[in-house]
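task queued by scheduler; priority normal; single chain, no ligands, no partner chains; default sampling; output format set to structure tokens
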Amino acid sequence: MSTHIVADVENISSRLAIIKKGQIIFNGAIKDLLEQSKGFVWSGTVTMDQYMDLSQKCKITSNIVEKEHHYLRILSKDKPGKNFTEIIPNLEEAYLKMVGEEVI
């Protein structure tokens, strides 16, 4: 099966292959892909100004806006700010890390 829908993969299989530019860049268990992405996903709350700055520097994978705050999940090699904590990556974030040209 070939799909771009992450939920399909999570619900159907325990293994996957990722192809980029015609080359297989990952072939293995989903748990192994998730393991390779540990240390690259961060969660934190920022103001609108901080959000604008981070959106230029990092790959934001989730943004929930509540009043004047943004609750973010970010893909980054380094901790993006003092109010961020490392979190467990989901499959979409692991995929984005794997296919990304470069994680900032």
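post-processing summary
- The chain is about 30% helix and 35% strand.
- Residues 36 and 94 are 8 Å apart (CA to CA).
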